[in-house]
Amino acid sequence: MKETLMKDLLSIEAQPYPFELEPAKCALLIIDMQRDFLEPGGFGEMLGNDVSQLRRAIEPNKQLLAAWRAAGLVVLHTREGHRPDLSDLPPAKKVRGHGTTTIGDVGPMGRILIRGEPGQDIIPELYPLPSEPVIDKPGKGAFFATDLHAILQNLGITQLVVTGVTTEVCVNTTVREANDRGFECLVPEDCVGSYFPEFQEAGLKMIKAQGGIFGWVTHSSQILAALA
Ligand code: TIU
């Protein structure tokens, strides 16, 4: 990682109160910006979802990722997905929704949510650099059954800026898991997305309510201004 020349503490305007970001201890964690969730013709759209609701988060994530990389700070990516033999896929997850095409079946961009398949990979706009850890996760939360916690501890990370999709599912679950493990989480609202506008709003409210019960919510422009 590049030597960081940043100040020790960056005060970010946020709700419910400013987030004191320590650059050397703060990682950008981008959740599940995968082709099957975001691209037209993918699994998400096949289920009847409006992918444009998620695609709005791509450009703000691109800008934040570029600024984060330029500052030499830690970046990690996650992908929801399972082993090709489905040995880590709970039967209850496989059958949920009573769909005719479910996880592990052949979908529009390869086998659905299977590691190594085109649809399971991260969208080209936000593709990880070789130096950026990619966490393949079998659950909605990024800490469940992964080595994310160990990696963050080894890197000395205590704060997370969490972005990605979807706001109320994998982002919310991960923020809750991180909060219980002692990490401070900041969520830029324009860098997360939900297929459902009402869940986007509620998902963000739940994080910052009650004095920041799970974390803080901001806009990426506040982080970009502080990093500049
Ligand atoms: N990444 C993530 O949120 N996985 C999901 O399945 N989300 C839905 O909203 N379905």
Key features?
228 residues, alpha/beta, Rossmann fold, 7-stranded parallel β-sheet, two-stranded antiparallel sheet, 9 helices, 19% strand, binds tricarbonodiimidic diamide
Verbal overview:
By secondary structure, the protein is an alpha/beta fold. The chain has a single domain, classed as 3-Layer(aba) Sandwich (Rossmann fold), CATH 3.40.50. The chain contains nine helices and eleven strands. Strands 3, 4, 7, 8, 9, 10 and 11 form a seven-stranded parallel sheet that branches. Strands 1-2 form a two-stranded antiparallel sheet. A two-stranded antiparallel ribbon has the order 5-6. Helix 4 runs parallel beside helix 9 (220-227) and helix 7 (167-180) packs parallel to helix 8. The longest helix is centred in the last third of the chain and has 16 residues, at 197-212. The model has no long low-confidence stretch (mean pLDDT 96). The chain binds tricarbonodiimidic diamide. Tricarbonodiimidic diamide binds at residues 32, 80, 140, 165-166, 169-170.
Please, what is the CATH homologous superfamily?
Isochorismatase-like
CATH class: Alpha Beta
Distance between the termini: 19 Å
Number of β-strand runs: 11
**Proportion in β-strands:** 15-25%
Give the ordered list of helices and strands. Answer: EEEHHHHEHEEEHEHEEHEH
CATH topological fold name: Rossmann fold
